Amino acid sequence: MYNSVIVVEGTHDEERIKKVYPDAFCIITNGSEISKETLDMIKEYSKKYKIIIFTDPDSPGERIRHKILEVLPTASEAFLPKKICISKNHKKVGIEHAPLEDIKEALNNYLDKDNIKADNLTNIDMMDLGLNGGINSSKYREYISLKLNIGHPNAKTFLKRINALNIKKEELIKLIGEANEE
After folding, report:
1. SS3 106
2. From CA 131, how far away is CA 134, in angstroms rounded?
3. Across the strands, what pairs with 26?
4. Contact assessment for residue 68 and residue 7, using Cβ atoms and an 8 Å cutoff
């Protein structure tokens, strides 16, 4: 984490991350209305550091993630499932509520877009596997996304994320089989 900049939504998220990685450097977006200045700062830091987007698993978090990826498509991404980011009173969702061990795992296993290889899956593979354009496509993607801890992406983003993880067709076939058993 020391050659990386972690983009989070708020100071409580940063505090939580620093309990796992005390020397981590974070950029705080201050909510879903991420400013142009903050986006410019993220782009500037990306010239020297790996950017890891680690926003809350909710709609505002996804909106922030999307805005950053529009200006910096090569940014890496870390995810946590919503169910472990819920506050004790069940009223809020955020990284700040997640167990430290889960935060550590998410940041150690982030999606690194620099690792995408030439033999990755294609849109045709997605259709062949029933992950796009089929009756159960959404169900399969949701099941696999939860298993791989990659958020809740649409088909296009799902493909990018599984390729960033270098997931192979055989592993997806196995996960689809598991989804059918449930």
Report:
1. helix
2. 7
3. 6
4. yes
Q: Which long-range contacts (CB under 8 A, 24 or more apart) does 61-66 make?
A: 61/9, 61/32, 62/151, 62/152, 63/32, 64/7, 64/9, 64/29, 64/32, 64/34, 65/151
Domain count across the chain: 2
Tokens of 138: 């959404």
Same domain, 105 and 76: yes
SS3 95: helix
Which range marks the domain in which residue 54 is found? 4-115
Q: What is the mean pLDDT of residues 47-53?
A: 93
Tell which of 87, 115, 143 closes a domain.
115
| pLDDT per residue as tens digits for the range 17-29 | 999 998 899 999 9
